[in-house]
Structures are given as structure tokens and as C-alpha cells.
Specification:
Mean pLDDT: 91
CATH class of the largest domain: Alpha Beta
Largest sheet: 8 strands, mixed
């Protein structure tokens, strides 16, 4: 199966019969049944800058989807000067965003990657998540299975915009229970980093802090989806999940989730607190992170939590 089988031009081109018309901007979206996708597409089609191609890569495993997008961009570097990656759970806030990104990249030719903050539903904070790449950016897909979108670009050529163009989008404004849970599992795995030859300490700290913000948001709002995100992270910390469990065609994540969402709200909330407690939730946050990461690095699995979820 070729990656072109997973492409669908969704707009931005005057010629809908041509896969890659003459536009110099490529917009890429990875789709795995996110609730926000229709609104995401509408916000892309509403951009005042209309000379672009939009490809949607649907229902592929996490790494394969990213490889498909970035490999296509590299192979088409003579055709596209810029890639803007808009995830399927993002809704752009300004119709001028693409124009503003292009202007900023033109005004600052030293910038290879522009990372713009988005308003994240889960943490109720701005997080960096919408990225624009020049066609000189490259990726090495041979080594990485978890941090699959990290390019081979020196940090000094990456610009983080948390004010001028931010927030660029709403991130995951209406997640399903599955996507909320998956969000937590994914970030939890980026904390413990199983099966990795090189540990990224900065990612450990940032993803841990992010999940702690989600937990605080849950305590304020009692939104079950936030609790499910925290639950997914706690189960990842406990060693329940592997990186391959992130793939959409792997049923383990959904099967474990189904054991919880059938509970009544009060019982489900009790499970959230119990599993966090069993994951050393009584410790200060920094000490808990260091302990969980130390145990994960030594192949530890929380037997009590594993027994609770029958994993």
C-alpha cells in the first residue's frame, strides 16, 4: 500500500483534479477519527491564503502516519517551500494564520521551524503544538518510535511563538472518551519512555508537568474526559502500555478504557483517585516523577494496578 492511498486533497487548490498543483505551501493533517476534524477542515478552507495543497493521512499507526507526511514533504521539496502541520483535533482561530506564518518565515530566513502555541483543552494552558517547517528540514525515521516528529534541526533554528501568532488554534476542544484516554497514554509513555536507548529528560519533565496541569484542571471542572486523560497517563506510568499500544489498530487501549467507562460517574472518579494513589500519588510531584521514572528505567511494573485493570 502506497502512502498516496491515504491522501485526500481537501481544499486550498483551484484545481481539485490535481494532486499537487502549483502552490508552494503544503498543509498536512493526520486523522484518526477525531471529533474536531470537520471543524478543523472548515478552518483550513477558510484561510485567506488559498494557494496551498491539503493532504489528509487517515487511520495509520502513529509512526507510519508521521513518516508518510514528512517523507512526502521531503520528496516534494522542489515543489513545496513550507509544510504546516495542522492536527485533526486542531481548529484554527484566525483566517489569516497561513498568511501570517508565511510572512514571519519570509521576514526571518534563519528560522527553519516555527512552533506556535495553541490553546489546549486538557491542560487549560497554551502549549506549543502547531508547527511550520521549511523544505530544508529533514527527519531520520530509522531510530525513533515514540518521538516520531522530532526533526534533525539544531535548536537555535527553531523559533517558539507564544505571543505574536498565539494561540493559533484550539487543541482538542471536543475529545471523545477514547481520544482523551489516548492523549493521556501517549503523554504518559513520553514520561517513562520505554524501549528507548536515549532518554529525553526535558521531555520527561515537560510531559509530566502537562499531565499534572490536566489533573488540576480535572479537580476544578470534574470533566470526566480530563479524568480519563489522567487515568491513561497513570496506567502508562504503571507499565501497562507499550509504544505499539498507541496505534489505532491496536485494540488494547480501547479494551482497557471500556473497563472504566462502563462505571457510574462516582465509581469512575473513585478509580481515578485510587490509581493515582497507588502510583505514589501521596508523594510531592517532583519526587513522584523521579521515582516513577527510576522504576520505569529498571523495567518495573505496578502489579497492583495491573491486577486492577486485568492487564
Amino acid at each position: 500500500m502506497t502512502i498516496h492511498n491515504h491522501f485526500s486533497p481537501v481544499g486550498g487548490s483551484e484545481d481539485s483534479n490535481t494532486q499537487f498543483p502549483s502552490g508552494r505551501l503544503l498543509v498536512g493533517t493526520l486523522y484518526s477519527k477525531e471529533n474536531e476534524f470537520p471543524e478543523c477542515v472548515r478552518s483550513i478552507r477558510s484561510q485567506t491564503f488559498s494557494t496551498f495543497d491539503h493532504i489528509v493521512i487517515k487511520d495509520l499507526p502513529n509512526k507510519e502516519a508521521h513518516v508518510s507526511l514528512f517523507k512526502t514533504f521531503m520528496e516534494k521539496s522542489d515543489r513545496y517551500e513550507l509544510l504546516i502541520k495542522v492536527d485533526a483535533d486542531m481548529v484554527l482561530l484566525s483566517p489569516n494564520l497561513f498568511s501570517d506564518i508565511i510572512k514571519k518565515m519570509n521576514d526571518h530566513p534563519d528560522i527553519q521551524i516555527l512552533s506556535i502555541a495553541v490553546q489546549d483543552f486538557f491542560s487549560d494552558q497554551l502549549i506549543f503544538g502547531l508547527n511550520a517547517y521549511r523544505n530544508t528540514v529533514r527527519w531520520d525515521f530509522s531510530k525513533e518510535n515514540l518521538f516520531v516528529d522530532i526533526p534533525l534541526t539544531e535548536h537555535k533554528y527553531i523559533h517558539f511563538d507564544g505571543q505574536e501568532l498565539a494561540p493559533a488554534a484550539i487543541h482538542s476542544g471536543d475529545p471523545s472518551p477514547y481520544h482523551a484516554f489516548h492523549y493521556g497514554v501517549h503523554r504518559g509513555l513520553k514520561v517513562i519512555q520505554p524501549e528507548q536507548t536515549e532518554i529525553r529528560e526535558s521531555s520527561r519533565r515537560s510531559k509530566w508537568t502537562g499531565i499534572e496541569l490536566v489533573w488540576k484542571h480535572y479537580l476544578r471542572s470534574r470533566d470526566t474526559r480530563l479524568g480519563l486523560a489522567c487515568l491513561g497517563a497513570e496506567l502508562a506510568y504503571a507499565g501497562i502500555f507499550k509504544i505499539s499500544d498507541l496505534d489505532i489498530d491496536n485494540p488494547k487501549t480501547e479494551n482497557i478504557l471500556n473497563n472504566f467507562i462502563k462505571l457510574k460517574p462516582i465509581a469512575l472518579r473513585r478509580e481515578f483517585f485510587m490509581i493515582r494513589f497507588l502510583n505514589f500519588g501521596f508523594l510531592p510531584s517532583s519526587r513522584r516523577r523521579k521515582l516513577i521514572c527510576f522504576l520505569a528505567d529498571h523495567g518495573w511494573k505496578n502489579i497492583l494496578i495491573s491486577w486492577m485493570v486485568h492487564a
